[in-house]
Amino acid sequence: MAPQTPKQSIAAENRKARFHYEIIDTLEAGIVLTGTEVKSLRGGKATIAESYATEEGGEMWLINSFVPEYLQANRFNHEPKRRRKLLVHKTQLNRLAGAVQRDGMTLVPLKLYFNEQGRAKLELAVARGKNAPDKRETMKERDWNRQKQRVMKEGSRGD
């Protein structure tokens, strides 16, 4: 995961993705947006939690993402749940489509953000779904790390 720089602003984040999926690989993709979608994204009310990406007709598409209507746009507004085209290189597209078809992976968006140049980007992950025992293991590991931090914090105070 790319570290967030001060100039990078996150418009939407899929926090549960790392819990529900085992992340294999990530990549940055551009996204085709209309003007009202960009204005609405800057407000930070978008949702990508239930969305996914798919390859159709030699192009990559983001499906089921929600970008609310921009209130000041009146009749020139966009459709909130429309399919949005993702901009990836042909070699990346072929690699991703192959992983999805061959290995049963899925393409999950992790976050939607604006980079330093002000362009909207989508961090996309090639992921495999976790089953219930894997999720329990993740919760145990998270609890253990939290306890470890608590003990170390208390130990440093007791000097």
Automatic annotation (TrEMBL):
Q: Quick one: where's region Disordered?
A: 130-159
Q: Which Gene3D superfamilies match?
A: 2.40.280.10
Q: What is its main location?
A: cytoplasm
Q: Name one GO molecular function term.
A: RNA binding
Q: Which organism is it from?
A: Aureimonas jatrophae
**What is the protein named?**
SsrA-binding protein
Q: Which UniProt keywords apply?
A: Cytoplasm, RNA-binding
Q: Which GO terms describe its biological process?
A: trans-translation; trans-translation-dependent protein tagging
The keyword RNA-binding belongs to this UniProt entry's keyword annotation: yes
Which InterPro entries did the record assign? SmpB, SsrA-bd_prot, SsrA-bd_prot_CS
Composition bias, kind Basic and acidic residues: at what positions?
A: 131-159
| UniProt subcellular location | Cytoplasm
Query: What is this protein's gene name?
Result: smpB
Q: By its UniProt entry, which Pfam families does this protein fall under?
A: SmpB (PF01668)
Report the domain of life of the source organism: Bacteria
In the record, the note on similarity to other proteins reads: Belongs to the SmpB family.
Annotated GO CC locations: cytosol
> What this chain does, per the record?
Required for rescue of stalled ribosomes mediated by trans-translation. Binds to transfer-messenger RNA (tmRNA), required for stable association of tmRNA with ribosomes. tmRNA and SmpB together mimic tRNA shape, replacing the anticodon stem-loop with SmpB. tmRNA is encoded by the ssrA gene; the 2 termini fold to resemble tRNA(Ala) and it encodes a 'tag peptide', a short internal open reading frame. During trans-translation Ala-aminoacylated tmRNA acts like a tRNA, entering the A-site of stalled ribosomes, displacing the stalled mRNA.
